[in-house]
Amino acid sequence: MTWVARAALAALLACGSGARASSDIVGTAVDVWEEAPLKDVQVWAHSPSQDVSRFARTDAQGRFHFAQLPPGTYSLLFSTEQDRSRHRYRVLRKEDVLLRDGVTLRVDAALVEESGTMICFGGRDRDVNRSRTDWSLTPSYLGGFAVGRSTPVQGAVRSLDGLLALAAGGRTDASGAGISFHGASAFENRHVLEGISTSDPSFGTNALPLSTELLGSFLLTTGGYTPEMGRVSGGLIEATLPTDATPLVDLATLDTVEYDDALEAAKSLHGSVFGSWAPGVLEGPRASDTGTLQHLGDFGATVGGPLIPERLSFFAGVTPALSRVATPRSAQQGEPSRFTDQRSVQALAKLTYSPSLAHVLSLSWVTTPASLRGASPPVGDAWTGSGSDSTTTLMALGYSGYPGPVQVDARVGWLRQQGSDAAFPHERERLQANARTTYRLKALGAHVFRAGADAEFLRDAPLGASATSQQVGVFVQDFWDVRDWFAVNGGVRYDVQWLRDTDGGPALRLGRPFSPRLGVVLDPSGRTFSRFFAHVAKVQGPVLLGLLTPPSSRVSLAPGLVAPSSTEFLAGVELPLMSEDTLGATYTHRRLETGLRSLNRDDGGLVLVNPGTGLGADLPEARRTYEAVMLEWRRTLRFGWQAQVSYTWSRLRGNDAGLMLLSDARGVPRLVTDTEAREPDALLPADRTHILKAFGSREFKHSHRLKSVLGLSYLGGSGTPVDGVAERLPWSHTVNVHVDVRYRVDRVANASFSLDVFNLLNGQAETRLDVAGAPLRYPLPRQVRIGVRYTF
CA angle, corner 306, sides to 305 and 311, nearest 5? Predict the structure, then answer.
């Protein structure tokens, strides 16, 4: 194939930024003295944080390759077992191998014979995209703390959305709709599953909040967005489904474990059975009469494994969940049902086919039917019984491989949401396709060139109205590793969005499509042990369809409308204190460039404008400035314990608080822009000066088979401003406790019992006031959750 044909192929396949590449580990094993490649070296890659255990053998050139690994921290073990009684070469381990998302990590091993006295090991992480701030949510991390609190609003599922509050700097959105980052609202977050966006086309929230029991890896990025990350101005939450349910292998026993037996066990089916229950009788007193929890819980199972060894594998899981809340006494007059019951089922299946090491295909299906029965909000003075049913379905097809000199990652997906609520029937669709090509080149250092594009069609049809959006984006970027101690990453996005409002007029194309981004990284050690980084970027978010489909108004679009955008600058440092401790500091400055506002029309409808320009020229220009300094100390899981402490000082000022979610008298949700008149540098409702978070867990080994885990967490934050007065609400404090007892039945089977207590002290200080100064929102009361699990 000529270079012209290759370039044409790359351009043809470059259609998407939503497809994030998988991560690989490659390397070579050699004799330490002769430097000769070693054949048939057995290599184990094990990540307790990602529930992954992989095996490979080196070829005649001593090479090995682990493909399609989720990002996380791995342990590698090299062995040249000749028989069951001895090893020719000494077993070699490499701990704390950090594999980042979309990275090919090279790790070379030099083995020494048993009589030798020297072991050499080298590895270099070629990830130059380290000018971002991210947080990997791993199962081992989550297994040490009380996390993922279930609520009836979330359908009693322990979803990923409930974990975002743990991230450093994350805060509850002013509207209470979720967790926001860096001054943005929760509606500006972007949610991705299997490379496909699952953000609600209308509201921007997560339309598919799956149980953490059904997910594989999780990655949260809060700043330093590269062009491939797409249109995002809040937090980027990415999750993947497991490719199978391969059990973990205890590395501590690999010196004596019989490899053939372990490999044979890996060829069989594996999975888990689990359940959790939170009885209402153990819930703490509520400060407000918003209903009393009777119970909530979930249970389910997962299963997976190879259908054709080393070629075809599958993963499947199901999680039913249920909850019941007693209606407040003041609302029971005239109400036919005393309770509000919610039921849901989450089911998924994934097939992964690898015809060769160079090509991987995956097909995923997820469905989440749910129902709500019981009391509805009042119409007049009477409460009436109500019922609603909803279903969200996702289909996704993915490919990753090397059809030539370039790596190609592509995804096609369809997301559909249906609701039959009599007060708010709706149907939403999201069709999307994306792909990305990667080309590596050595010239004045090492380059990783990436180019791609994505296309989406979105439709929102509530109450008979209909609004649509088409989005197309392309990007180019280069990760340039100039020297071992210096790297640059830069590129640009070009995004176009066409909107058609509910009036049925012609589609309007939004302006200002370019988003340049640039980052630099200094690594004095030259071995990725430390980093000094800075990043500057313009970020854009889409105009959500919820702004065009309010339940009782018609909305039109102002000519020349521009999508909301912000500029961001961040700088930071990460330094290792010891082999397992990291100290970091980050400064973030984000400023709103373009905002949105809804204006009343003469005919009673609304028009969406940009304040300070065009039809919104008479309005003050939208301003929102976020500044923050974050300090963080992390200790990775080692010697049985792990910990993380973060402190964030921040200030959020301006006259635009962002989008808010309100409900009318029928309970119909509607997305609105901020219409409150403020000074340009006023403190905004989500401003919290201080946020302190601390987590720690300790593992106790009682015997070879029995161990327990104790985890504590603290989340505290200063109060938000009170409108109209120079005061703030009181500090909020939350203490959570986790206890877990685990029994190892055999090499792969484990049984565990857990006890989680959320808000142990039952703190009930008000977190929001209404316009009259009366308390409007309180923290969730104490909740006790009991859990059991069996993995096989």
Answer: 145
Q: Which amino acid is it at 683?
A: L
SS3 content of the chain, % helix, strand, coil (to 5): 5, 55, 40
The 10 Å Cβ neighbour count of residue 222 is 26
**Start-to-end C-alpha separation, the chain:** 48
Q: CB–CB of 277/159 below 8 Å?
A: no
Q: What is the DSSP string of 651-704?
A: EEEES----EEEE-TT--EEEE-------TTPBPTT--SEEEEEEEEEEEE-SS
What sections of 207-340 are H helices per DSSP?
259-266
Q: Which two tokens stand for residue 320?
A: 């039913």
Residues with Cβ within 8 Å of residue 269, at least 6 apart in sequence? 245, 303, 304, 305
Within 13 Å and on the Cβ side, how many CA atoms surround 67?
A: 16
Instruction: State the greatest distance between any 2 C-alpha atoms of the chain, in Å, as a whole number.
Output: 90
- Which amino acid is residue 714, in one-letter code? Y
Distance, in Å, from the CA atom of 448 to the CA atom of 436, rounded to the nearest integer, reads 12
| Of 516, 599, 597, residue with least CA distance to 562 | 597
DSSP per-residue string spanning 583-650: EEEEEEEEEEEE--EEEE-TTS-EEEE-TTSGGGTTSPPP-EEEEEEEEEEEEEEETTEEEEEEEEEE
Residues 169, 170, 175, 176: is their CA dihedral positive or negative? negative
- CA–CA separation, 106 vs 97, rounded Å? 10
Classify residue 176 as left (phi > 0), alpha (psi -120 to 50) or beta. left
> How far is the C-alpha of 262 from the C-alpha of 747, rounded, in Å?
8
Sign, Cα dihedral of 306, 307, 313, 315: negative
**What ranges make up the beta strands (E) of 147-242?**
171-172, 179-180, 190-193, 196-197, 218-223, 236-239
pLDDT digits (tens, 9 = 90+) for 395-438: 999 998 877 778 889 999 999 999 877 656 788 999 999 999 98
Tokens of 268: 């069989």
For 381, counting Cβ atoms within 10 Å of its Cβ (0-12 exposed, 13-18 middle, 19+ buried), the class is exposed
Torsion angle, alpha carbons of 328, 333, 339, 343, to 10? -110
564: nearest Cα among 214, 204, 119, 27: 204
Q: Residue 11 and residue 554: Cα distance in Å, rounded?
A: 41
Under DSSP, the state recorded for 331 is G
CA 564 vs. chain centroid, Å, equals: 22
Q: Read off the pLDDT of residues 264-312 as tens digits, 9 standing for 90 and up.
A: 555 678 889 999 999 999 998 887 766 788 889 999 999 998 888 778 9
Task: Supply φ then ψ for residue 372, to 5 degrees.
Answer: -130, 125
Specify whether the CB–CB gap between 470 and 498 falls below 8 A.
yes
Calculate ∠ Cα 475-480-483, nearest 5°: 170
Angle at 182 between CA 417 and CA 711, to 5 degrees: 80
For residue 176, what is the DSSP state?
A: S
**Which pTM value belongs to this model?**
0.82
**Secondary structure class of 451 (helix, strand, coil):** strand
Q: How confident is the model over 67-85, as pLDDT tens digits?
A: 878 777 788 888 875 433 3
Q: What is the Cβ-side half-sphere exposure of residue 763, based on CA atoms within 13 angstroms?
A: 17
Question: What is the C-alpha separation between 109 and 28, in angstroms, rounded?
Answer: 6
